[in-house]
Amino acid sequence: MSASDVVRLRVVRMKADYCSAIWLNASRSPWILVQLLAPPLINAGIMYVGASEDGGDAQIAATAGIFVISLLAMIVLLVPCYWWGARSSWKAPGALQPVDYEFDARGMRVRSDVGSGEVTWAVFNGAIENSKLILLKQRPGLLHIITKRDVTPECLQQLRSLVRSHVVGPARLSA
User: Fold this and answer.
1) How are beta strands 126-129 and 171-172 bridged, if at all?
2) Alpha-carbon gap, residue 19 to 86, rounded angstroms
3) What ranges in the chain are assigned the alpha helix state H?
């Protein structure tokens, strides 16, 4: 393996990066729809069945109103949950300190002030990219956040190529 086959990155995350990462991960999951829509649909169904049968249009309007109110309530309840998740992540020791990543055909090595580790590509089950970051997913709740502002375009292309060729799960990356 030559030195050109190795991608080395130094990433410094900010609090906003954790918020972006958690939202990006949640928004790409089908479970967000279940979390948002199941309770309002149940409430609307109970309202519709429990209302008198002679209500007609009024019954449908009331049911739709309950659905909308329940949906807004779920959004109001879920947003703080995601924010608290991001907050607990950025408050972890070393979370806002520089992290050195090294990627090659075998896997990934990570080094920071609080520890180091090495994993093979087999443990990754997906990757997601947006305009600000790349998420490498190992398992639910364990994400590696690569901020793009700290990385040259050439390194990003090399990293995307490695991820596409080695990550088993879906890799939703830019071209």
Assistant:
1) parallel
2) 5
3) 15-27, 31-50, 57-90, 153-166
* Residue 101, token pair as written in the block: 């990543």
pLDDT digits (tens, 9 = 90+) for 23-41: 888 887 777 788 888 888 8
| C-alpha closest to that of 110 among 10, 13, 6, 19 | 10
Architecture of 3-14+92-172 per CATH?
Roll (2.30)
pTM confidence score = 0.76
What residues does each domain of the chain span?
3-14+92-172, 22-85
C-alpha Rg value of the chain to the nearest Å: 22
Q: Measuring CA to CA, which residue among 155, 152, 140, 167 is closest to residue 25?
A: 140
What are the φ/ψ torsions at residue 137 (nearest 5 degrees)? -100, 125
Give the separation between CA 66 and CA 95, rounded to whole angstroms: 41
Residue with structure tokens 């970051």?
133
Chain segment 106-155, per-residue pLDDT in tens: 999 999 999 999 999 999 988 999 999 999 998 777 889 999 998 899 99
